[in-house]
Design goal:
The complex is a heterotetramer, with 2 copies of chain A (337 residues) and 2 copies of chain B (415 residues). Chain A has 337 residues and is of the alpha/beta class. Chain A folds into 2 domains: 199 residues, Rossmann fold (3-Layer(aba) Sandwich), CATH 3.40.50.970; 123 residues, Rossmann fold, CATH 3.40.50.920. Chain A has 12 helices and 14 strands. Chain B is 39% helix and 7% strand. In chain B, the strands form 2 sheets. In chain B, strands 1-2-3-7-6 form a 5-stranded parallel sheet, with helices on both faces. A two-stranded antiparallel sheet of chain B has the order 4-5. In chain B, helix 2 packs across helix 3 and helix 2 runs antiparallel to helix 12. The chains are: A alpha/beta (337), B alpha/beta (415). The structure holds thiamine diphosphate (2 copies) and magnesium ion (MG) (2 copies).
């Protein structure tokens, strides 16, 4: 075990994966010599050479398109999109190509690529450095979508994603790169070194894609969360003195329906939280699944606390962000229904 | 800022390229060189010098069927006859499947009538292990690589023997073993993938090269740019083919080409050597492909080739070109028919004659008809012989996840 | 009133809009001289000249990007994407630009464009001529999303969309271009001339964006549908002898929540149907909204009958398509819960 | 297919461009012409002839500060002094806001240090009513158009007086009235929009032209291609600016340029006349902009200009270039400093001197400081003076729809 930030854990996952499989190549904007604007690939080029980790032109379509071609050759590209907000130029290559190649060729070709990207807000990035586009991937058959919330999971899930035979969209909430941010932006920053999930096993390990994790056990209500909001939900529960069970979904597709159903059947109440805009966000799918499977266990409507249906604002970031006050208030309201 | 606008400012006006029908001469090939006129540059010739050829056209076969000039390739008569046979097979195959569509046996078809030399000739110049990233008009690649006709037909009929389990629209073949990447319905996406594949070969110290294929209309798509940027930056071992058949459904090439003289010009924007080649001249196709392949294999980087040809038929079976197309276009097309031209060459060499040609025609037609009879015996999407709907859920992922298992169960309940 | 196919109604809407406002320009792949592969813009170039309706290069990003620029100049571009499956190259221009220009410039600039596209399957188009990507637009703040189901609405809504001051994604289910397809692919085709909604008012009229329409009144259960599935749901109800209320949503964003709530409160049961893949489809949002607002009226879980989470297949089209049998069966199951 | 691979085949190897630090000479400007060396082509000169200039550099100011050659523009001394003042204002403005960032008064800032001549010079050559589609490094356009500094600063501080209501990241200005399209954080999207705007002007028979702006790194993005295709096809009245400041965050220009000699080359792939211009020479900037604008106004179509300059500072306040950048780069940059060069020219003309320069510096600094004091008095995002969160819901649509009204009510309940 080593205490690591999430950035260090991601870097370590790359190292382990590249060490154990020389088909793994890493590229993207500024990821080579410089090691990425968030430094997640720092040291890779030095250690593995510029034929394993290299810089690319600023072309997200090119990055993913080339990765699909490389995967068809037999490599395992793990590429970085500098910010999730900039993935849209690559959207066609992800949804029409990476996600489809195996199916349309009946397994003749496949696209085992990982598309990593920092996601979410909370860093005063304004509308183009703050988005959470995960829902846009979950609607696309053939893609797996992972959102990590801590260094321990980030390393294990990234190794699993690179080893996975299918394309994986891997979202890294940038606000938890350096610590378990709970939404209290006005309090001192807590580093990962102070948090048990900052303890990262050395060497190779992987976490199964498709398995949720109970982040906090509880019996009053269930919170379905992922990424940064896991920590926000925990803080809200503690501040409100509510015995909430917080589930960290970790993988959105495939979804760990059993873990969800088990918890909601136990608590009878469900709160869904995410940073992405509300309408047609992944929270909608969670509501649909929970009511389909647990309607007669529900004592109150499932509530969603999400980003508003506006672009992510700069100055009003904390009015947009679903912080512990909004989440806590929804918990109280949910319990009083 | 200067503060006033000149009163004499003329109102601006947009240039909208003319529709082809009625406005252009039906012969729209720009810059035709004589056979043998163009020199063949050294493999590592400076791109600036190759650029001087951007308004020329590599041609080998002259009007008498002679193979003339620097570019005349050194291939045996047997290889030439093989090329002729492949092209005739493609044409016969197309005709049979077009008929199958008319007979209501398939939902859709796309032929390559008039463009057969390009795919057949390039395939002959490449090696097993190389990978094509084709569009829907390169059936010649598969046929020239001896992919079984009946398997292709099963795909077109979407029957139980279709290796793609009826998932794809007819003609969207895939065969890794035959160096043929799974066709996408989305234009241009494969172009950058080909560059990525070639990059992978180079990253791994391989010896295999890639060939990217695109229609002239689809060069307007953005993925074409991504491909050129990556190919230029990393000097990937890839052949960048642009098939200029003058049409993109109803849209004449002018809309994609804009003010450029040629599509080969696009390469020069990236210092990628680019040549224009008579795509209806099998020997020119072979020679240019061979040259580009050799450059790639010698690590000299990408080559762009604009193939000049004509889409003789409709865009697809869903299209009726009579609305937008000058009727006399095919006759007036100055580059002739690729099969006739190679035949004439072999006759000129005294290696071919009417009798043999008729016999070969009969042979390929029989081969096609027999294959079709076999494929047809497995039924088609139209007869409902489409295998199990279960298969729809396979290959979405390498392993079937729970939600798809549940959905598959539901389909079974229903049927 | 004139009996029209949906294609004719769309053509007519263009004519009316172009006639009354010379800022309206129409372009896209094959839309000019030829009049579009589905002929929806036939006759416009002839009537208004090639500076009002023209062909474009094959570049969806270019088409929408240029339209955004033209709108900034003061025009009202109405562009066609040849198939909804090919909108992804334009996705960035739609979500990051058209949808954002007004907000990020605080109203200094705006992007009143219409992006029309044929959507949905049922024509043996395989995976790239059959998709229904509407959910991918509904998650994006700043976009309006319309899906039409018949000639009457198509004309009125297209005129409204062109006159709207915001970007509108306008989806035209190609399977109902020529008739009210009810999912019985093995029966003779019924033309619009035989259907009351094929009667189209002459001249100018518009239908408010954001208002649903009760397609069929009923009291047993509510079906929330749009596009082709409106007709499928109606057929299913009739075949099952179930008194279903079928709501044609017409607009997904903004959503007519009142119409939905009113119906579900009345019937107590809700079925959501669409052709798009199930997971994270717009049906999920509908489930979320209905359970949020009507939980205590629900006598059974809301059910979704949607496309499977696979690419749209060619040969197995009718196993994929949520036809009247699947919809009817779900109705029965819903009533028996 | 030929069936065997040659045993002598060499393994392929990819070309990965070198990182700049330590590998390249810190002076990386390719093809520097002498001042006055280049001829000025006629507005309607054949693109092939303009192409001969692709490895030259338009320069007007020589080492002594003389304006020499064909391209020397015919502008008054007052206009030159105005240009000098604008550039000094931009530099002072940048310095003040960089300081504001260090003082913790703003979340982010991006300066244009060393590149001031390009935006200031082009703005001077255009007319009111023309529209720029800028990136985040063209603050010079707004300042030269007399957009109030204090309004710009309010935007950077995101305070209650920010006309964009704190919605956008600092420096993402918008002002239609000043011909400045709202900046997007997404690279390259504006390039095709500029072409669309220019097309609209031409469709309507207007007289206004558009100017598109992009960094050399972002030319790799696909929207750059869309813009070139549309500009070439429709011959839109647009100036296509590429600011080559040699860096895209940590990535040297080589990754975007690939094997091409210059970024101007990209234009020739589309037969768009393209020139390279010394971007640190205010008079060359003015002259080239003027030439391109004139071409557009005369309906002669698009012009591409590659501006050679250097990003002297960090990419943004989030960046630390010491890791990737050769330390001696700025000193060794051969094109000098744009302010010094115009000053030297005015001194050479005897129209300027040390004393006046010092006075002007003081004047612009005062203007900037006063503006900043005023902006600062309205607070900033850091002091929480950001106006009402209600405003977040405005302008998502022209009219507030019900779901946003409900969400807004909820925000109010909460606060
Ligand atoms: C992204 C995308 N946009 C539009 C289409 C529709 N489409 C299919 S083929 C075609 C024309 C292509 O013309 P060209 O590239 O010249 O190829 P050709 O058909 O002549 O071989 C179009 C517009 C598509 N398949 N994909
Ligand atoms: C689509 C997209 N991808 C990536 C980024 C992140 N990014 C912001 S600036 C930049 C470098 C741009 O370099 P260049 O175009 O040369 O402009 P310069 O900063 O030098 O002015 C990058 C990669 C972005 N903003 N948008
Ligand atoms: Mg074509
Ligand atoms: Mg730059």
């Amino acid at each position: 075990m080593t205490a690591m930030t999430m950035i260090e854990a991601i870097r370590d996952a790359h190292m382990v994966a590249m060490e154990s499989d020389d088909r793994v190549v890493v590229f993207g904007e500024d990821v080579g010599y410089f090691g990425g604007v968030f430094r997640c690939t720092q040291g890779l080029q030095e250690r593995f050479g510029d034929h394993r980790c290299f810089d690319s032109p600023i072309s997200e379509a090119g990055i993913v398109g080339a990765a699909v071609g490389m995967a068809a050759y037999g490599l395992r590209p793990c590429v970085e999109i500098q910010f999730a907000d900039y993935v849209y130029p690559a959207y066609d290559q992800i949804v029409s190509e990476a996600a489809r190649v195996r199916h349309r060729s009946a397994g003749d070709f496949s696209a085992p690529i990982v598309v990593r990207m920092p996601t979410g807000g909370g860093i005063f990035g304004g509308q183009t450095h703050s988005q959470s586009p995960e829902a846009l991937f979950t609607h696309v058959s053939g893609l797996k979508t992972v959102v990590v919330s801590n260094p321990h999971d980030a390393k294990g899930l990234l190794i699993a994603a690179i080893e996975d035979d299918d394309p994986v969209v891997f979202l890294e909430p940038k606000r938890v790169y350096n610590g378990p941010f709970d939404g209290h932006h006005d309090r001192p920053i807590v580093p990962w070194s102070k948090h048990p999930l900052g303890d990262v096993p050395d060497g190779h390990y992987s976490i199964e894609i498709g398995k949720a994790r109970v982040h906090r056990e509880g019996s009053d209500l269930t919170v379905l969360a992922y990424g940064t909001l896991v920590h926000v939900a925990q803080a809200a529960a503690e501040e409100q003195g509510i015995d909430a069970e917080v589930i960290d979904l970790r993988t959105l597709v495939p979804l760990d329906v059993d873990a969800i159903v088990e918890s909601v059947e136990k608590t009878g109440r469900c709160l869904v939280v995410h940073e992405a805009t509300l309408t047609s966000g992944f929270g909608a799918e969670l509501c649909a699944v929970v009511q389909e499977r647990c309607l007669f266990h529900l004592e109150a409507p499932i509530r969603r606390v999400c980003g508003w249906d506006t672009p992510y604002p700069h100055a009003h970031e904390w009015s947009y962000f679903p912080g512990p006050d909004r989440v806590g208030r929804a918990m109280r309201e949910l319990l009083s229904t | 800022m200067t503060t006033d606008r000149d009163d004499t400012d003329q109102p601006l006006r947009l240039r909208i390229p003319e529709p082809a029908r009625g406005q252009h001469a039906p012969d729209r090939v720009r810059y035709i060189s004589a056979a043998g006129e163009m020199q063949k540059p050294a493999l590592d010739e400076k791109v600036e010098r190759v650029a001087l050829m951007r308004k020329q056209l590599v041609r080998v076969l002259d009007d008498e069927g002679r193979a003339v000039g620097d570019w005349a390739p050194d291939i045996s008569v047997d290889e030439k006859r093989r090329g002729l046979r492949n092209m005739m097979l493609v044409r016969s195959y197309d005709a049979r499947l077009l008929r199958a569509h008319r007979q209501g046996k398939t939902s859709f078809y796309m032929q390559s009538l008039g463009e057969e030399a390009i795919a057949c000739g390039q395939q002959q110049a490449l090696l097993p292990g190389d990978m094509h990233f084709p569009t829907y008009r390169q059936q010649g690649l598969l046929i020239s690589a001896d992919y079984p006709l009946v398997t292709m037909m099963n795909q077109v009929l979407s029957n139980e023997h279709d290796p793609l389990h009826g998932r794809q629209l007819p003609v969207m073949y895939s065969s890794k073993a035959h160096g043929f990447f799974t066709i996408s319905g989305n234009l241009a996406t494969q172009y950058i993938q080909a560059v990525g594949w070639a990059m992978a070969s180079a990253l791994r110290g391989g010896t295999e090269i890639a060939a990217a294929w695109i229609g002239e209309g689809a060069t307007a798509e953005s993925d074409f740019h991504a491909a050129l940027v990556f190919a230029s930056t990393y000097q990937a071992p890839v052949i960048l083919n642009i098939v200029n058949n003058h049409w993109a459904i109803s849209t004449p090439e002018d809309f994609a080409r804009g003010a450029s003289a040629t599509f080969a010009d696009r390469g020069y924007g990236f210092s990628i050597p680019a040549i224009r080649v008579d795509g209806n001249d099998y020997l020119a196709v072979y020679a240019a492909s061979q040259w580009a392949a050799e450059r790639a294999r010698k690590n000299l980087g990408p080559t762009l080739i604009e193939w000049i040809t004509l889409r003789v038929g409709a865009h697809s079976t869903s299209d009726d070109p009579s609305v937008y197309r000058p009727p006399e276009e095919t006759e007036q097309f100055p580059l002739g028919d690729p099969i006739q031209r190679l035949r004439q060459h072999l006759e000129f060499l005294d290696e071919w004659d009417e009798e043999r040609h008729v016999a070969l025609q009969a042979e390929v037609d029989t081969q096609v008809n027999e294959a079709f009879a076999e494929a047809d015996s497995h039924g088609s999407v139209k007869t409902g012989d489409v295998g199990s709907a279960r298969t729809m859920f396979d290959d979405v992922f390498a392993e079937l996840p729970r939600h798809l298992r549940e959905q598959r169960d539901r389909v079974e309940e229903l049927s």
